[in-house]
Fold:
Amino acid sequence: MEAPTYSAKQLCRILGVPGTTIASRKKERFTSEDLWKLRAKLSRLPEPVGGRKQLFLNFKGGTGKTSLSTSYAYRLAEMGHRVLLVDLDSQGHATKCLGYEGEDFPKTLLDVLIRKTPMEEVINKTPLPNLSFVPSNLGMSTIDLSLMPMAAREFKLRNALREVQGNYDLIVFDAPPSFGLLNLNALMAADDLFVPVLADFLSFHGLKLLFETIQSLEEDLGHILAHVFIVVNAFNASFKLAKEALEALREHYPEYLLSQLVRQCTKFAQASSEGVPVFLSDRECKGAKDIQGMIDEVFSRLATQKSAKRAG
Structure:
């Protein structure tokens, strides 16, 4: 991933300070290192979120899950959070969306969960100072079989993260569109679940299966997710079927569905194909604005829950 640069105006927007705070006469472009230093200097660090682990998962493929998760993680880091993105898919799509090739990395999560390699040894840095990632490649395709005979196999990922989770404000998992032991591990490790869906009726079957799985986790393994967020992706309001599917989602899943829709955006799709988060490609496009809106809504819900717990 190429190192991002910013104009003075863009930096002021990201930091949430008046446009005259950063003088641009001395410097035309600013680096991500400049952004991080200015955050500390201006005391513009975000509110702490308590070390949350957030999983992007849908058993149905083709919902744009990886494009969402990588741009979401990138933007959180840009906003000042310390973020770790964990690629769970053997196809390595999240790794590619950050601009890297999975085959270039000798170690993945397979080494951690199966060969007991320390988690720190598979974590890699990006040019954004507070965004790190765990890569994936085709070697990960055997991980479910390798986990099968192991004791406490459902908790391997949760246990492995304990040694590093204090280093991050958020850990974001990008999962493959399937159900297996690795995804079960991710569900058992996660605090929050993000379910990207398309506004079509085929998405309902995948949602039904996913919610049945969540219920079984609660009943059989005692794990209760703090939040489930359904995110409608690639929404096109000009399609009658899309509007009908959205209304059905609002009717059946009102407590989980985010009001912020991520609209269909060609620049968003182009960014993923080029191996960059949308905020690095075109931060003014509607896809980038919608992800920011999604983040604002999610963090508002998290803050509301936190306040309710304090009041209780």
